Sequence to fold (265 residues):
Amino acid sequence: MNEYGAPASASYGAPAAPAGAVSMNAPPVSPMDVAQVTPPQGSPLTAAGLVVARDLKLAFRKRGQWIQPLIFFAIVTALFPLGISPEPSKLRAIAPGAVWIGALLSSLLALEFLFRDDAHDGTLEQYALSGQSLTWLLLAKTATHWLLTGLPLAVMAPLAALSLGAPIGSVPGIVAAVVIGSVALSLIGSIAAALTLGVRRSGALLPLLTLPLSVPVLIFGARATELAIGAESYSAPLYLLGAFAVLGVTLAPLASAVAVRISLE
Fold:
């Protein structure tokens, strides 16, 4: 009531605001508030495709991070002849182990960057709040990691094996083994990268978690490569590698999503 006995809203002849009307002096709604109530658009596959495209674009801006594992792989495989013997028969015998040890150690170099940069700039937190499946988004990031490390290693592995005395006929078997095995290594590494996301100096802890889980992949991958070099059937170890890859696709994204959510809390 004002001093004349009229309602305050009717002062100076101003009409009262209707019920439910929004005041012009109300604070503006922030984009975060809108994002929290806006339903997610698109399917999980569409969102995963966008994540892959984004990560590939960022990777081409930081080529050094993804070229280093390939250079490391070439150096490791080149050191075996210097440390053991230059005899072709001995090099051919150690070629499977040299190729797979080099591939395993090279994949570890890029694992540190799998989730770290996105965690520092808040991208992972936005993924968790986006309404999309975090499992699919992390699987997309792992697929990008494989495209940038596992696939190039599968191309370089036959060249390294040939330089160690492997016959040219073993190239298809080596490529198949490294392609399937590198998928399993990327998925195993994604779990370790997610578990060490909130740990300081995770670079030392990451290999300790990844290497024990990668031993079966190393064994069956080296066995498949050995059989391919010896011109024997390598289907059995290849099937086992495929089983590990399928198991990784089924379980690794779920475990990574749980670990990422825990680290973000």
